[in-house]
Amino acid sequence: MSLEHILKVENLVMHFGGIKALNDVTFNIKRGSVSALIGPNGAGKTTVFNCLTGFYKATGGDITLSAQNKETSVIKVLGEPFQATDFLSPFAFFRRLKYKMFGGSHLVNRAGLSRTFQNIRLFKEMSVVENLLVAQHMRANRSMLAGVLNTKSYQKSEEEALDRVFYWLGVVDLVDSANRLAGELSYGQQRRLEIARAMCTNPEIICLDEPAAGLNPSETEALTKMIRVLRDEHNTTVLLIEHDMGMVMDISDYIVVLDHGEVIAKGGPEDIRSNPKVIAAYLGAEEGEEVTL
Amino acid sequence: MSATAGINYKKSVIDALVAGFMALIVFGPIVGVVLDGYSFNAEFGKVAWMVAVVVIGRFAISCFFQTEKGIAMAFRHANNDEGVAVRLPDHKSKLLWVVPLVIAIGLLVPFIASKYVLTVIILGLIYVLLGLGLNIVVGLAGLLDLGFVGFYAIGAYGLALGYENLGLGFWSMLPIAALIAAMAGAILGFPVLRMHGDYLAIVTLGFGEIIRLILTNWTSLTHGPNGISAPLPTFFGLEFKRRSRDGETFHEFFNIPYDSAYKYMFIYLVLFAVVWAVLFIKHRLVKMPIGRAWEALREDEIACRSLGLNHVLVKLSAFMIGASTAGLAGVFFATYQGFVNPSSFTFFESALILAIVVLGGMGSTLGVVIAAFCLTVLPELLREFAEYRVLMFGILMVVMMIWKPRGIVRVTRTGFAARKGVVK
Question: Where would you find the membrane-spanning parts of this chain (chain B) (predicted)?
Answer without folding.
Answer: 12-35, 47-65, 95-113, 119-138, 143-163, 169-190, 197-215, 261-281, 316-339, 351-378, 385-403
